[in-house]
Write a structure and sequence with these properties.
The protein has 742 residues and is α/β, with parallel strands linked by helices.
């Protein structure tokens, strides 16, 4: 680079002039104070360039205020706007309105009966207080008549006149005015006395009824006037517990106490939490407060749900009153906090609406429980299967029995109940059950397997009936209410309830077959009108096989101990989404998450029905069935033939259909021959079912060479080796004490 000192053409005089005159004709003078004030009052990331006027069509930053401003008063904006309901929710919901009306009527009736029973007591109080009231009235009138209210003033003037003689004139003036008032008031007293004597005479000359009424009114008036200020006349019919309203400050303080990093960081940055509430805290259904909370960025609602116990402590409320939920429909950071007035687990719940009257249509929802806000939660069993899970002693069996009781009140339905715990919790349902068994002995397992095989055969028959029905009768290829009510079609609803279902699936011999049948029923049964309800106290992959847990629509999860059990019952990733049955306490019996009935899982407290009450409902259900002529199966005295299951003739039958010259056969050939041998047992048997049935015996299928009878061509297919069958028979007979092989 060339220095100016080396350039003889450089104009040193002009450069020196420019240096001493910065405000030349082409220079811009910058007001530093104004520039600093603009930077202090604006955000560098959002303010546009101060030298560019957006109104002149200049560039606008993509995140500027002008760019982010929404258009107002546009048709599209009004179309996208959410309309607030004209009527409140409790007026638009028939059940909620009926519940509120019933509650208000009950409260009014209670008050009338309570105070009506105490009328003699109140009359005695009034009679005792009436003299005091009469004295108060007479005393007050006397003070007014003689102007005793002004007496203290006049006495003060007299005392002042001792030292100030001029006050004597003031006293004379006050005395003259007092005398005029007393004379005028005396005339009213004479008139009043005349009216009283006339009225008394009229009462004495009137009938007894009039005299009693007058005396009663006088006692009532003077008794009320004579009541002490600290002793009211009426007793308290309803004692209301003082409930502290929920405020935004209280919620923010409680969230800060949870020690969640994202919340703590936001508060340390100076965030007061005032903008965390997208809607005001409102009173819901007269049972508590609802707060919608927009948590700070990066904080999920599930993090708050996990700390429900700490949140209740921070709010200084009972644990059963605090119910945080994640509103994932908006985003994972939206928290819905409901704080009830009363502990949900201890508050009195209304009786089951179907307890004494009414029937159920399984194609429609029926009452199952209530949510923390006291609103009804319904259950629809048709076209769905259900899983119920929890740790022991949390209300799992009672919840299953409640759902089954609803099914018994549909007189069309076949109800099958299997109590594998063996304690008889489902015994109240026995008088109406198409199939019923309690216990886990060999005979009980055989009964259950025979019954489930029967249902699987019924499923196949139903699919054929539905397939062959005209399109106008069965437009969607599934059972409809009209089809279910047509007896000749035999498409009535079937509801199967299994308590402690893990006993079936873990059975050493028949577990695989139970799993195969139940999986088939859960996948194909709902469209054919078959509902399977499985309840377990050990929700894991073995108790609830994947094919079952992945296809159940309805799920009810009471308290569980870990996220694995939570997701086994409620569905994959439910725990991460904030639906956590782990938050329930040991006190929350009968309370769980119900998923699959609505858009979002709902915290539900099931209606409590004890054994004797369940028997009353069952008697009414049996009466409905007797009138409709729909008593079948066990309820009608029919039994299940379990001979085939107890004998376990599968190995013997396969050995019988495979001759010595046919050492190996394809699986489909074996199925066809078994059907021909025992059609009542093997009709509809598939290769997969045959493989599952042979697995407990240690027999597996392999590649077998054979000839297709239709084409005459040879090929390798999955099949059975007769030598393996004979080996399994020998092993079985040795285990049974040397029983001869067939």
């Amino acid at each position: 680079m060339t220095s100016p000192h080396d350039d003889p053409r450089f104009d040193w005089q002009a450069a020196e002039t420019d240096l001493h005159d910065p405000g030349g004709p082409d220079a811009d003078v910058v007001d530093l104070d104004a520039a600093r004030s603009r930077r202090a009052g604006s955000d560098d990331l959002t303010d546009p360039d101060p030298d560019v006027d957006p109104g002149d069509g200049g560039p606008v930053l993509v995140d500027s205020i002008d760019a982010q401003q929404r258009p107002r008063l546009t048709l599209a904006g009004f179309r996208d706007a959410q309309r607030r309901p004209i009527l409140p929710g409790w007026l638009r919901s028939r059940s909620e309105f009926a519940g509120n009306l019933t509650w208000a009527t009950g409260l009014a009736g209670h008050g009338v009966l309570y105070h009506g029973l105490r009328v003699p007591k109140y009359a005695g109080k009034l009679a005792l207080r009436a003299p005091a009231g009469l004295g108060r009235v007479a005393g007050g009138y006397g003070r007014w008549l003689f102007d005793l209210e002004g007496e203290p003033v006049r006495q003060a003037v007299v005392r002042a006149a001792v030292t100030k003689p001029e006050e004597a004139k003031t006293y004379e003036t006050l005395s003259r005015r007092r005398d005029r008032r007393v004379r005028w008031r005396g005339l009213t007293a004479v008139l009043l006395a005349g009216l009283l004597f006339a009225g008394l005479a009229g009462v004495l000359l009137a009938s007894t009824v009039v005299q009693v009424v007058v005396v009663a009114v006088a006692v009532l008036v003077f008794g009320v006037l004579g009541a002490p200020a600290d002793r009211p006349l009426l007793d308290t019919a309803v004692v209301r517990a003082p409930v502290t309203p929920l405020t935004s400050d209280e919620v923010v303080r409680a969230l800060a106490a949870l020690n969640i990093p994202g919340i703590n960081q936001a508060l340390r940055r100076g965030d007061t939490g005032k903008r965390w509430f997208p809607a005001p805290i409102t009173r819901e259904n007269g049972t508590g407060w609802r707060a919608d909370v927009e948590l700070p960025r990066g904080v999920t609602a599930s993090a708050v749900v996990e700390k429900r116990e700490e949140l209740a402590a921070a709010l200084t409320r009972p644990l059963g009153c605090v119910w945080p939920e994640a509103n994932a429909e908006i985003h994972p950071g939206r928290l819905v906090l409901f704080v009830a007035d009363k502990d949900m687990s201890r508050s009195k719940q209304n009786p089951w609406p179907l307890l004494k009257s009414g029937a159920v249509d399984l194609f429609k929802p029926f009452p199952f429980g209530t949510d923390p806000r006291g609103r009804a939660v319904t259950l629809t069993l048709m076209f769905a299967s259900m899983i119920v899970g929890s740790i022991p002693r949390m209300g799992k069996t009672f919840s299953l029995r409640l759902a089954m009781l609803g099914a018994t009140l549909d007189p069309r339905a076949w109800v099958l109940a299997f109590d594998l715990k063996g304690t008889g919790d489902l015994s109240p349902l026995e008088p109406v059950c198409h199939r019923y068994r309690a216990g886990d002995e060999d005979d009980d397992i055989a009964y259950g397997l025979a019954a489930m095989r029967e249902v699987r055969t019924e499923l196949r028959r139903r699919t054929k009936v539905i397939r062959e029905l005209p399109r106008d009768l069965c437009p969607e290829n599934k059972v409809t209410p009209d089809l279910a009510s047509t007896k000749r079609l035999g498409l009535q609803p079937i509801v199967i309830g299994v308590d402690e279902c893990q006993v079936w699936f873990e059975h050493a011999k028949y577990g695989d077959e139970f799993e195969e049948i139940c999986t088939d029923l859960i996948k194909r049964g709902p469209a054919a009108g078959i509902t399977l309800i499985l309840a377990t106290q050990r929700p894991d992959a073995k108790s609830l096989p994947t094919g079952i847990s992945a296809n159940a629509v309805l799920r009810f999860c009471l308290k569980v101990m870990g996220h694995t059990e939570n997701d086994m019952v409620l569905g994959t990733s439910m725990h991460k989404s904030g639906i956590k049955a782990t938050m329930f306490s040991r006190r929350d019996r009968g309370i769980g998450y119900l998923a699959g009935e609505g858009d979002d899982p709902t915290i539900t407290r099931t209606f409590y029905i004890d054994g004797p009450t369940a028997e009353q409902v069952t008697r009414r259900a049996r009466t409905l069935r007797e009138k409709a002529g729909t008593l079948t199966g066990h309820a009608a005295g029919q039994s299940v033939d379990t001979t085939a299951v107890r004998r376990d003739t599968l190995l013997d039958d396969i050995a019988a259909i495979m001759s010595d010259t046919e050492a190996k056969l394809w699986s489909e050939v074996v199925c066809d021959r078994l059907t021909g041998l025992r059609p009542e047992v093997y009709t509809g048997l598939t290769r997969e079912q045959l493989t599952a049935a042979l697995k407990p015996h240690g027999v597996t299928t392999g590649q077998v060479w054979g000839t297709d009878p239709d084409t005459g061509k040879g090929a390798n297919r999955r099949g059975i080796d007769r030598a393996h069958i004979l080996t399994a028979i020998t092993k079985r007979d040795r285990g049974q004490g040397g029983r001869a092989a067939g």
